[in-house]
Specification:
This protein is α/β, with parallel strands linked by helices. Helices cover 37% and strands 28% of the residues. Helix 4 packs parallel to helix 7. It binds adenosine-5'-diphosphate and magnesium ion (MG).
């Protein structure tokens, strides 16, 4: 194993993936070390969600070396990948509408791991006091922002080692967006490894230290998040619509 291999927690090499006959990702390579926070940026349709789904085993991978903690995950099914400690917060908020907030959190509960932060119920409520106040409410009766918080909290209840967030800021009012950004920044400060697909540059700049920018399923740029945020011509070239 090379040095980069052993340093990486999640390593993606030559990832091509798609739907049916269509290939939408063309040979992506990037990796995250433990404690990294990486934003996956790009215009609508660039391939951000597909990249995250390919890591989770939810779309067809055509070619790839995918490894998590040195273990090959390229042909494992999604539930096995999740069990290794890969937490996934999908674009469409996945809550059980008929269950209460507390019950939703119980559904996400997994045994503690020695190598990941542990999230007992009280700690989740410390992170999201809003959820504590409505823990007996049925999740279907919450706002979009509250459902997003619940989805993140439920994923944390599985005590993940890495969190994959797909556009956590999408469709949220600015005040809620700030709340989610603060929370994700807290998780980052706690040392949780984060991969965040995002269209909002402002959100990404608040929560990520590195970035990978996708364009038509290929990496158009990768580097320091703050540098990209500060470089308006680079931003315009890569991200303006
Ligand atoms: N279920 C699907 N079936 C076929 N094509 C899809 C599907 N989902 C996404 N795509 C296509 O894959 C490409 C990348 O989409 P996606 O990963 O969702 O982009 P992003 O998340 O960056 O907006 C787009 O061209 C999109 O139309
Ligand atoms: Mg997407």
């Amino acid at each position: 194993m090379s040095e980069t291999t052993s340093d990486a927690m999640l390593r993606i090499e030559g990832l091509s993936a798609g739907y049916g006959p269509a290939t939408v990702l063309h040979g992506l390579s990037f990796s995250l070390a433990q404690g990294d926070s990486l934003a996956l940026l790009g215009r609508n349709g660039a391939g951000k969600s597909t990249t995250i789904k390919a890591i989770m085993g939810l779309v067809r991978r055509e070619a790839a070396t995918l490894s998590f903690d040195g273990q090959a995950i390229g042909s494992l099914p999604p539930q096995k990948i999740a069990r290794l400690g890969v937490g996934y917060v999908p674009e469409e908020r996945r809550i059980f509408a008929e269950l209460t907030v507390a019950e939703n959190l119980e559904v996400g509960r997994r045994p503690a791991r020695s190598d990941a932060p542990e999230w007992p119920e009280q700690r989740l409520y410390d992170l999201f006091p809003e959820l504590h106040a409505m823990r007996d409410r049925r999740a279907g009766r919450m706002s979009g922002g509250e459902q997003q918080m619940l989805t993140i909290a439920r994923t944390l209840a599985g005590n993940p080692r890495i969190l994959l967030l797909d556009e956590p800021a999408e469709g949220l009012a600015p005040v809620v967006l700030d709340r989610i950004a603060d929370t994700v920044a807290t998780l980052r400060a706690e040392g949780l490894t984060l991969l965040i697909a995002e269209q909002s540059l402002g959100f990404a700049a608040e929560v990520a230290s590195r970035c990978v920018v996708l364009e038509s399923g290929q990496i158009a740029h990768s580097g320091d998040m703050a540098e990209l945020a500060a470089d308006s011509s680079l931003r315009d070239r890569l991200l303006s619509v």
